[in-house]
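Deliverable D2.4 — example input (structure tokens):
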């Protein structure tokens, strides 16, 4: 099939697995607000992505449809080594809900060679979903980047502390998860993240306190798990 036929087939598959009930649940149950969705489960989207295989042109074409589910699949079939910084910027500007933001960061952007640069760049941006992407990407890197150094994550902790005063729920939740995930990489980063969490927990700003206290509780539990495993 040519590219247009591949896109048509993928969209047909999605439409065949669409559910009105799931579409209704997206904003109310999952907090995913988007005007362009049809209600397909993540499991069905993963099946389609596996059938399609890695295909950069197809990923770009699926993204261009604007359909939420097609864009989720696009993040799963794109080839990380072919993703450019310009593409990352373009896709990031299209983020309009946490579901697409986090899925792209966890399935694609964190595997590109530009991920760390984008964390630093996006963390300073005022747009809600761009900043969410910065810390969702950092969260993903903490989980997936086996080659990253402690120095990289220690520098990232400075971004966490700097941006912890952002009171928007979608931003502060991603900042919190990034902090917790960094602290779970190894004992040294656990201590560093716990120190940041402690300072934030005592900060005058409400968002910083919320992030710090939540992270401190989670990292304290991690300390207990490490002790049991030792």
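Example output (designed residues):
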């Amino acid at each position: 099939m040519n590219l247009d036929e591949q896109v048509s087939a993928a969209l047909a598959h999605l439409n065949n697995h669409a559910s009105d009930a799931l579409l209704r649940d997206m904003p109310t149950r999952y907090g995913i607000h988007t005007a362009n969705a049809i209600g397909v489960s993540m499991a069905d989207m993963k099946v389609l992505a596996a059938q399609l295989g890695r295909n950069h042109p197809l990923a770009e074409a699926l993204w261009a449809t604007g359909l939420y589910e097609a864009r989720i699949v696009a993040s799963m079939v794109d080839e990380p080594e072919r993703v450019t910084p310009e593409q990352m910027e373009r896709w990031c500007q299209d983020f309009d809900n946490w579901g697409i933001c986090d899925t792209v960061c966890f399935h694609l952007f964190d595997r590109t060679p530009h991920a760390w640069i984008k964390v630093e760049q996006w963390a300073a941006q005022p747009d809600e979903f761009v900043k969410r992407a910065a810390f969702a990407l950092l969260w993903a890197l903490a989980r997936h980047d086996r080659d990253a150094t402690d120095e990289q994550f220690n520098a990232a902790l400075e971004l966490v502390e700097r941006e912890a005063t952002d009171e928007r729920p979608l931003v502060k939740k991603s900042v919190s998860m990034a902090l917790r995930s960094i602290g779970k990489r190894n004992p040294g980063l656990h201590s560093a993240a716990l120190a940041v969490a402690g300072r934030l927990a005592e900060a005058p700003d409400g968002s910083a306190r919320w992030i710090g206290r939540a992270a401190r509780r989670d990292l304290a539990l991690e300390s207990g798990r490490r002790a049991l495993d030792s």
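The longest helix spans residues 206-229.
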